[in-house]
Design goal:
Bound molecules: pyridoxal-5'-phosphate
Oligomer: single chain
Largest sheet: 3 strands, parallel
Number of domains: 1
CATH topology: Rossmann fold
Helix content: 40-55%
Number of strands: 3
Structural class: mainly alpha
Length: about 170
Amino acid sequence: MGFVNAVGELKKQIDDIQVNIDYIFFASSSGGTQAGLTLGRDLFELNTELIPINIDKSETEDLSLQNCVLNILSDGRKILGIQKKYQPEDIPIIKDYDKAGYGVVTKNEADALKELAETEGIILDPVYTARAFYGMLDYLRKKKIHKGSNVLFWHTGGLPATFHYADQLKIRM
Ligand SMILES: Cc1ncc(COP(=O)(O)O)c(C=O)c1O
């Protein structure tokens, strides 16, 4: 519900500046973030495609991430009065960037973290947001996103994890 409300805030902000967001990239791991963004998008009628970058190679317990999201969507739509009945095809999961496994920081995550820190002064966490940000950069580099689209990266936090990985990332604290 936090993410549903956050999409409501986003909707206000983008209406104020009169832009449409075509794509939202974010890290998806256990389902809550993705379900909240999906419900929020549909409740506030955003014309936006969600691109959830899967973080964990192995599934959550015995449920697939898609089923975890589906379960939350089924409960959430009732609470929010959303008519749409969600199907598995409404739940994209991009599994192209999870091969190293959960919590394993590769050059991809390290490079994404460094690039955003150096260019914008924004710190990603090495486990979730850096992996998702790398995925977004890869999409853009491979021109998988239409030219002229408005792309939003949703930074979901996790900054303290950077301290745990400082040695590996060769960051001096
Ligand atoms: C920083 C960060 N981003 C994204 C996620 C993914 O959220 P969810 O588990 O709701 O998919 C997590 C989960 O722990 C996280 O810590």
